[in-house]
Amino acid sequence: METLLRTENLTKKFKNQVAIQNISMNVPENSVYGLLGPNGAGKSTTLKMIAGILKPTRGSIIFNKHPWKRSDLSNIGALIETPPLYGNLTARENLKVRTELLNISDGRIDEVLEISGLTGTGKKRAGQFSMGMKQRLGIAIALLNNPKLLILDEPTNGLDPVGIEELRNLIRQFPKQGMTVILSSHILSEVEQIADYIGIICNGKLEYEAPENKEDNLEALFMDIVKRNRREII
């Protein structure tokens, strides 16, 4: 399988603190890559570098067989942390703002509303949306440019069990549509059900990367890595 995204010794320092250290990860094309790690492990920082929000201190990112460049953002969609919504606008109006900024056809608005299950929201303003609907709208915004790579950072935060299942089913459809997904989470069961590949970050280092194997005990593997790293710190 072709690799869509590869990082080589990716490192990020904030003043004297090393947040990410020499991460080399490989994300196959048309797959769901589950990036696991405890809170504060460095998942969001890693994804922000891939999404162009943060600049790496050193190391490189290879996207679609070439060194990452700013123009690649036209092929990358991201929902990292809080969805960037205008609370006084409807779902359609929020999307319209982005199509104007990105110079994308308005026809794409109906497509992403359908994909994200928001076609029936009408004149309801985003500020009145439930947490699940806000997450869906954030994903719809990330999908507007029909990206090759979709980055979702803890997308089920604040969702109820029904919302989590609906989002899980939605994400599983994306590789069939020619889209690669990086999904970060600290919830093992969530990632285990939909990921094709697993990466585990702990203390800013990629400690594990392999195809997801239903026969493996992911929880035992995860806990072993976390506990081992904590002993090393002590």
From TrEMBL:
Keyword terms of this UniProt record: ATP-binding, Nucleotide-binding, Transport
Transmembrane feature ranges: none
Pfam family, one: ABC_tran
ABC transporter domain sequence ranges: 5-228
GO molecular function, one term: ATP hydrolysis activity
Xref: SMART domains: AAA
SUPFAM superfamilies: P-loop containing nucleoside triphosphate hydrolases (SSF52540)
Family in the record: Belongs to the ABC transporter superfamily.
Protein known as: ABC-type multidrug transport system, ATPase component
Organism, as annotated: Blautia obeum A2-162
